[in-house]
Q: What sequence folds into this?
């Protein structure tokens, strides 16, 4: 099936188009707000940080339509694993402490399933965040 929904992306002013849309992190609104509060404003520390990490000051809304590849759909899945992207580069699956699996993990999954949309499953606390969250 095809899914249509809005995704959101937090960026510095004027940076929304620097990297192709296929190589960026996006999320639902709850996820982007969690990211801002836990990784941008507090920057893994205590208290508020100014200026914000990466100078993030904008949230962009993007309407998308996605459909799983045949390989992904044949395994009963609509979305793949969520990879982190930094500066247009796939860092793999990331876990607490900013430990990421790397480009080889991305290549393995993309070779197996094709280029699919990934997502976190917060109810399982996997892969990140590993704590209860409202997102």
A:
């Amino acid at each position: 099936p095809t899914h249509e929904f809005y995704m959101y992306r937090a960026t510095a002013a004027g940076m929304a188009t620097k990297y192709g849309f296929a190589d960026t992190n996006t999320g639902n609104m709850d996820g982007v707000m969690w990211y801002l509060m836990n990784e941008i404003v507090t920057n893994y520390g205590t208290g508020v940080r100014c200026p914000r990490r990466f100078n993030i000051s904008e949230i962009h809304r993007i309407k998308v339509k996605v459909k799983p590849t045949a390989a992904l759909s044949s395994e009963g899945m609509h979305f793949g694993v969520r990879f982190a992207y930094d500066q247009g580069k796939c860092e793999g699956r990331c876990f607490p402490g900013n430990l990421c699996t790397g480009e080889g993990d991305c290549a393995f999954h993309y070779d197996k399933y094709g280029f699919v949309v990934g997502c976190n499953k917060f109810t399982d606390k996997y892969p990140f965040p590993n704590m209860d969250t409202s997102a």
